[in-house]
Every structure is written in structure tokens, then in C-alpha cells.
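Q: C-alpha cells for this one, please.
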Amino acid sequence: MKISKLLFATATVASLLTACGTKNASVDSEIESRVEALLGKMTLEEKLGQMNQLSPWNPDELANKVRNGEVGSILNYTNPEEVNKIQKVAMEESRLGIPLLVSRDVIHGYKTIFPIPLGQAATFNPQIVENGARVAAVEASADGIRWTFAPMIDISRDPRWGRIAESCGEDPYLASVMGAAMVKGFQGDSLNDPTSIAACAKHFVAYGASEGGKDYNSTFIPERTLRNVYLPPFKAAADAGCATFMTSFNDNDGVPSTANKFVLKDILRDEWKYDGMVVSDWTSIGEMINHGFCMDAKDAAEKAINAGVDMDMVSEAYIKNLRQSLDEKKVSMKSIDDAVRNILRLKFRMGLFENPYVVTPQSVKYADEHLKMAKEAVEQSVILLKNDAQTLPLTDKVRTVAVVGPMADAPYEQLGTWVFDGEKEHTQTPLKAIKEMYGDKVNVLFEPALSYSRDKNQSGISRAVSAARCADVVIAFVGEESILSGEAHSLANLTLQGAQSQLIKALSATGKPLVVVVMAGRQLAIADEVEVSDAVLYSFHPGTMGGPAIADILFGKVNPSAKTPVTFPRMTGQVPIYYAHNNTGRPANPTEMLIDEIPVEAGQTSVGCRSFYLDAGTSPLYPFGYGLSYTTFEYSNLKLSSGKFAINGQIHVTADLKNTGKYDGTEVVQLYVQDKVGSVTRPVKELKAFQRVELKAGESKSVSFSLPVSELAFWGYDMTYGVEPGDFKLWVGTNSAEGLSADFTVSAL
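A: Here is the predicted structure, written as C-alpha cells:
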């Protein structure tokens, strides 16, 4: 064990990120005065009303509730005229004139749909992520929406879980950077800008670790792992000024998140000093009855408010029960007042009292600049997984292209999950884009073969094969429909659905160069399909502008640069699988004997007694951070500013990067660190920094990183946060499995 005394470290990744507006003491003081003044005028019923969020279907019933001060926020109103109408009732017909906070799930676009968040994470470019959220905010606010339930920054290491599509992947650092960028994009420079929408960090916390990848399921995350892995993205979001937090559906160690005082009060409020608003997830207060944690809605309301949940999303448990609970002294007036303070503070910060009505022009929807940014996001999110014999990009020698597969011309399906407001009529598919953009260069033969991704009818495969035989290159668009990922859409089998595998094998058998493009909401187990393909592009669900971006990549106008934000398994049985795992006492090595190599009647020792799968080996299909380019890059000359650093020091790292190919390209340079020996077992590698570096063909650059030693801090054996002096290893390279390495030590002051 290292020196047991831990030296406290305070720097976090979020401190390196731009916050959403600088806090102004005088403005904050004025807002607090206004909050207290208004709070002092409110009846108990009006306070409970502010804590009540509804998703109404009857406008007259809603108007009556708003008029009586029984509603603080509404969901799913998207008509600006209706929003202004109900807001007018709140402002002019209720006793206190408190504006409503209008909300909607705006996850990866409103009208202009960007790649799903998992795809955005593949860009390793926080500016792309910020741009996407800013576009979403501008378009959504045009319909009166001022609060979204994003970013989802659950660490997600099991692709069976459908909501991995909403996440930024498996890595705490990447999720922290991307989550903070989304907050900045949604909220802009100031929350009181009419085009800003309040962000919501969700799901607090550990929802992404649901057992078996099954949605809403239980988790068991010990505090140390919770703090080291699952909490950092939320801390980054809080530091970035995220206006609201949302509790998660899961229980952790038997305590539903919506009643977890430890995370909601001890950590969020007391440790992090968070003064934003906390909302439950949809009916999650009432669902604690199903958990067997609460007897009834009254019990659930008491436990939620006492834990620190400010607003009840749609269950009406607060407004129907808390008066009685207050009379019975099971909740305090202070708890209710604190919740209302957090809600009113947000409304004042957003300028809703001064500007409650919709003002953003409708013309912002699908604006040319928005479509341009959406296309750029796709260009940087598509991962080149395989490219044998330089199959891509397609050259002038290609005269006829066979475009096949159920995802080639599926405008709705390429939008992905959580798309309530995107319209397929505005979606540009790969088939359409290839014909319109490159139809003067190539003859396009189209055969879908399958009607949709789950289609098991193989009768159309023969027509696709005939088209392939007439073509110079075959491009097969496969994957999963948007409905197969997202909330409540977990899968036990991660292979391609329907007859898509059979289609790919039949196309491969023609002997024609085969390019496979996968559109999906998660990383699928596609080892067999990769094996028989010449080139593979993985686009996740790319959104509105998926077609033009993919077409430009196929034909070489754009050189792919994305990297995997998650580890790709060889088969479903490998999951959960992630790169930053701890070592066992018997770690596997690459020479382990696999199942087909084991002699008949072999002794037990012939399989090595190591930690691996006999039928899957020791490695994933593709590691975290992996992605090819049409060009090649060479790393050399890794240097550290010293071999020994003080606990309060700065690690300066340089390496040379050269574009050794014939295309201009962009490489995502990644820096990983391993703490070799700790007071608790530590991950084999952890991402600590990355840079996107553009290089012309033949060009070289020196790439530098400056890493504070404090970024090596973790929660150790005695649950103290800090850097433990000792030996470390550092890598700089192209993915989590490859790179130049150097050793260094950290010493106490």
C-alpha cells in the first residue's frame, strides 16, 4: 500500500470548463430578496402548487388549476399560442402571478435532430456537443419550452440497457466534458436569455448500472465506486451551472434515488453546495410504493420531500398529501419552504417574471445554419471501424453502387430515440443523399432487401444480391430501428435483428467490395458481420442530416475522425464490458487457450486459470477510443517534463504526431493514466485528457498536455478524496489499447 496519508485535491475536470454565466453577487442577492418576499406572501396551497408539475390533456382543467395556484410547471405543451395562453392565466389570473415553467424532453435536438448523445460523444469534440444543445434550445424556446430533461450523464457500461443511447458512454471523464458542454449549450451565456432553456442533469444517480441492463432495475453501487465512477459527471454538470437535477428510477442498495438523502442532501446540497432545483422523474415518487419502500402516496411524498426532492413530476403526491403530513409533523415547513425557494430562484434566474411569453421567431426551426451544424456533427460522429484494402473512400473507378438494407432510406428510424418533435419529412437519408449529391458520378441501384430492421422475411435478399452482382461496390445500411433503443427498450441479445446478418453474408458471398454502415442506438455485437465485410462505418442514429454526412464520408469529401465512446463486445455474453476495469489477482494475457484449442480430455491447468472467457478470449471487438481514418498517423517522441512530480504539481506531456498517409485528417489524441498501486484497486487505465489534432498529409505536429497532478485524485480506502503518492504509468495514443508509454512518480510535499 502507498503512503496512507492522502493529500487533498480540489481540482476537477469541470473547473477547466466554461460555466454558464458568471455569478454576480449583487444579482444573486437581489434574486434571494425577491424569493423571500414572494415566499412570505404564499399560502401553503400555493407553495405546494409550485412543487406540482403536470402533463395535462384538458386545457380548461389545467387553466383552472393554474388560476388557483396549483401548478408550478407543465410538460409537453409545444404550441406557442397555447403556451402563451396558459402563461397569461398564470401571470394575470392567479393571485400571485407566478409564471409557469414549461418543459419538454429535448434530448438531441428539437426540430433539427442531431446524432443521439452516444453518437455526439464519439466526436470527442465538446464544441460539437455544445452547438447541438444550443440549436435545440433556440428551436425549442420558439415554442415556449424553457426547460429540458437533458443531459443524461449516467455512466453506461452495458449496451443491453436501451438508454445507453442517451448517454455519453462508459467513461467518467468523457461524460463530464460532454455533459458540461451540453449544459453550456442549453443554457447559453445566461439563463434569462429568452433562447436559453434550463438543463437538467439526470439521472441522479447510478441508473446506468441497472442490473442485467434491464431498465428501471436495481443497482448496487458501493459509495467508493459511486464517487469514483458515477458521480463525477454530475459534479461537472453542477460546476457548469446546470439549473436542475433529476432523480433516477432505480434503487441503490435498497434505497430509491427519489428518497436517497445521502446523494440528494449530503452530497448534492452539503458537499457540492448546489442551489438549483431537484425534480423527480416521471411518477418516481409514487413508484416508491411499487419498490416496497413506501406504504402509500402519502408515505412516498414524505420520504421524497424529506430527502430533498423539490418538484413532483406528475404523480401529484405532494399537492394531495403534504398538508396532512405537515399537520402530523412528518415533514417540516422548512423542507417545503426550501423546495419552493429552489423553484422560485430558478424562475427568477430565468427572467420568467419579466419575460414569461414566447418571443423567439418560428423561422429558427430547420434554419440553414442549424442543418449545417447538424451535418458537421454527423461527419465527426461516424466511426470507421474497418477499412481493408482501402475500400473507402470510393474513388472515380466506382461507376455503379448497390445501396441495400433496411436503414438506407428510413427517415424516421435514423432520427433515433427521444424524438418527439423531429419530422421525418425533413430527414435526409443516405439513399436520397447519394442520389442527389453523387448521382452524376455513380449509377445507384437500390434494393432494401428487408422492409425494416426486424424483418425476418428473406425473400428480398435475392434481389439485393442481383443488384450487388451488377455493382462495383455494395453499401449495406443496417442496424436497429429507433424504437429498439431508449427508455424501456432493453435487449438481451445485441446481435443484428431480423435477417440482417443473412443479408450481409449473402452480399459478401458475391465477392464484391462490401461496405456496411450501421445505424443503431447502442454498440451492437457485430463480430461476424465485420469479419465478412471489407469496410465498416458505425454512425449510431445520426439524425436529420445523417444522409448527406454519410455520403460525403463514403465518397471521401470528409475523412472520418470519430472514436468509440464505448467498448464494443465480440458477443453479448461479454457485457458489461469497459476499458477502465480493475485487474484481478489472475489477469488474462493474450495467449490464453481458447475453447477450440483445448485438447480433448485436457487437464484443468491447460486453460491457464486466468480471468477470461473460453469462447470470447481476452479482448473486445473494438476498445474504447478506437476509430480509423482514411489516412494513417504515427506517434513518436513521448516526453514528460519530469519523472517525478509533487502532489501539487503539473504534469507536462508532449508527443509528436505525424500524418503518414495521403489524406488530410484529424486524429483524436488520447492521454491515459494508471495508478499502479493504491489503497484500493485502481483501473488499469483512465482517460484524463484528449485533443482533436488536424494534420495535412505528411504534416507533423507536437501535441502537448498539461495535466494537474490533482486530476489523479480518487476516493481511497478510508473514503478520503486525494492523490496517493506512488508510481504511475501514462500513455498517449490513438485508443485505450494502444499508445506510447512512460512511467512517473508522485511524491508528498
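A few notes: The radius of gyration is 27 Å. Residues 25-41 form the longest helix (17 residues).
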